[in-house]
Amino acid sequence: MCSGLSEPLTAPSAEDTVSIRMSWQEFGEKIRTLRDKKGLSREALAEKCGLSAVYLKKLEAGERLTPTLQTLGRIAEALDASLRIELTPRRKPRGGRHGR
Asked: Is residue 91 part of a domain?
C-alpha cells in the first residue's frame, strides 16, 4: 500500500501538538539501509537495541505502526545514527471557517 502521501508515525488526534510524518515504507527502508551499511543482520541489530528480530522485521516492512520515541532512539543509537525531530506549524484547514 504505497501512496505519495505521508502517514503519521503516531495516530493523529485532535489533541496532537506534534506530528512526525514519514511513510512507513520509507521509514522501514531507512532502517534496513542503515543496518545493511553497518553490516548487521536483523538479529544482530535486535540484540544491540534490545528488541526482537520479529519487531524489527515488522518495522522494516512498514507493518509496525506505533514505535515509541524510546524505541526509535534505541534503534538510532544501535545504528550510530541520529534521530531528528522537527516541530513545524500545523497547516490551516482548507475551507473551514475562514472569513466568517
From this structure: no
